[in-house]
Write a structure and sequence with these properties.
The complex is a heterodimer.
Chain A lengths: L1 H36 L8 E6 L6 H14 L15 E5 H4 L10 H5 L1 E5 L7 H5 L5 E3 L6 E3 L9 H5 L6 E2 L23 E2 L5 H4 L6 H8 L7 E5 L6 H8 L2 E2 L11 E4 L1
Helix pairs in contact in A: 2-8
Chain B lengths: L37 H15 L1 H9 L21 H21 L4 E3 L6 E3 L2 H9 L6 H8 L21 H7 L29
Antiparallel strand pairs in B: 1-2
Classes of the chains: A alpha+beta, B mainly alpha.
């Protein structure tokens, strides 16, 4: 009798296991088939190529920074720790710390480099945002900010390995010299950063920094903007032809801003 | 001890004489101390209800609606992006749609569902182009209707009139930009838009 029950239970268990796993196997097979049949994404990815040699010109860097900050009502905070920047200049040694070695000449280390949000393909900042206020826009690859949703937790600032984000510690309006009326300012308690001039791209323009660089004498080609997903775009061609680097590629964030050495 | 049943009205425990006083009326019914009689109870209830119901009966009898403050309406013959009844009822919905379309989807223009005109989805450039200062229109009605704790659009979006910009700079921003479109593109959905991001041609 006891032997009989034991065999019965064994067989019942095996049967249940077999019947239970069938749908799982079927589902696995189906999802593999779905993944295989999906068309490759044809999404755009805006990108920027910065020519380091041309960025040695202080007037060019200044023009880019001023054009950007004027276009977006970026305040000039008097307190350095409250500084708000969308695009700024930093020494090569600080920007490309992992490219510096014991014999790197000082001239290289101190060379100024224009830096801005890298609009990464795998952005760390968007993954930590609890409200969806910053996200990777699928249509054009811009890492966007929605100020309506930002609660000022600053997780994104902690997550960004490039320090591309700034926080409004106080109402920025008193620190904006000339408020441009048709672009919003920010308010106290939100994070802001470069958005590749989404408002200009929307109407077919190019980012303000790119336009400003081109208008400076000798600035043609200092900043080149275009679609990285399009192999014929100017940025894609430059990346094929020139020696370029990007910031901290080992992190796997996949920056969309490149620098011509 | 005896087996005599205890009278609850008189039994005050062993060794505690009642002092010859029982809580019973002369006819044997229990007596309740402090009973005021039916008339006083109903009087009190009526007074209480009258007091509690004051907001209701006062409003029914003597109440008048609070006076609607005059709104500063756009001058001249201008039409809003949608008809006035739709805007009155659904402007928060429309503005939320605009916000999400611009910020999240990268769209630019709105095509009016009532007449097919096209305008940028912009609080400052489109809404204020006709309505002028927000204090005379948005704030005044929101204050009257006690909507929300505060209308905080203007903490970030600019009201060129309220910011005291010169007439010249103001007109650069606030020129009405409604444009006529072929009617076929305008009918149907309320949100739409024409624009997405054009490919960059260097």
């Amino acid at each position: 009798m006891s032997e009989c029950r034991r065999t019965f239970l064994k067989r019942a268990g095996c049967a249940a296991l077999g019947a239970g796993s069938l749908p799982l196997l079927a589902a696995a097979g189906r999802s593999m088939a779905e993944i295989a049949s999906q068309p490759a994404p044809a999404a755009k990815q805006w990108g920027l190529v910065v020519d380091l040699k041309k960025c040695r010109s202080a007037s060019l860097r200044q023009a880019c920074i001023e054009a950007c900050h004027a276009a977006h009502n970026v305040p000039s905070m008097p307190e350095p720790r409250q500084k708000i920047e969308w695009i700024w200049s930093e020494p090569f040694g600080a920007v490309f710390g992992d490219q510096i070695h014991a014999r790197t000449p000082d001239q290289r280390k101190t060379e100024p480099v224009l830096v801005l949000c890298n609009h990464c393909s795998q952005p760390a900042c968007t993954k930590v945002c609890p409200t969806g206020a910053t996200w990777k826009r699928a249509a054009d690859g811009i890492v966007m900010m929605d100020m309506h949703r930002c609660i000022g937790c600053r997780y994104c600032m902690a997550a960004c390995p490039y320090g591309a984000r700034s926080f409004n510690w106080q109402d920025p309006r008193p620190y904006i010299a000339n408020i441009r009326p048709d672009y919003p300012t920010r308010t106290k308690g939100v994070v802001e950063k470069c958005d590749f001039c989404a408002e200009r791209l929307r109407t077919g323009g190019v980012p303000a920094c790119v336009e400003a660089a081109a208008s400076v004498a000798g600035g043609a080609g200092a900043l080149t903007f275009g679609d990285l997903a399009d192999p014929q775009s100017a940025v894609s061609q430059l990346l094929r032809q020139q020696d370029t680097i990007c910031r901290r590629p080992s992190l796997g964030t996949g920056p969309s801003v490149f620098y011509i050495l | 001890m005896t087996d005599r049943p205890i009278d609850l009205c008189t039994a005050n425990g062993p060794g505690r004489p009642t002092g010859g006083r029982e809580n019973r009326a002369s006819d044997g019914r229990p007596r309740f101390i402090g009973y005021a009689g039916p008339s006083k109870i109903y009087l009190g209830l009526a007074a209480g209800l009258l007091g509690l119901g004051f907001p209701l009966w006062y409003a029914l009898a003597l109440g008048r609606p609070a006076e609607m403050p005059p709104l500063e309406m756009p001058a001249g013959d201008v039409r809003c992006v949608e008809d006035a009844a739709y805007m009155r009822a659904h402007h928060p919905r429309l503005l939320r749609q605009w916000r999400d379309a611009v910020v999240r989807d990268g769209l630019d223009s709105y095509v009016s569902a009532c007449d097919g005109r096209k305008c940028p989805m912009s609080l400052t450039r489109t809404c204020l182009a006709c309505h002028g200062e927000h204090r005379g229109f948005c704030d005044r009605c929101h204050d009257y209707a006690r909507v929300g704790p505060k209308l905080d659009c203007w903490d970030c979006h600019l009201d060129p009139v309220a910011k005291g910009l010169s007439q010249n700079r103001r007109s650069q921003v606030l020129r009405p930009r409604m444009t006529e479109l072929p009617t076929d593109s305008g009918t149907g959905s309320r949100i739409q838009t024409t624009l997405s991001i054009a490919p960059h041609q260097p």
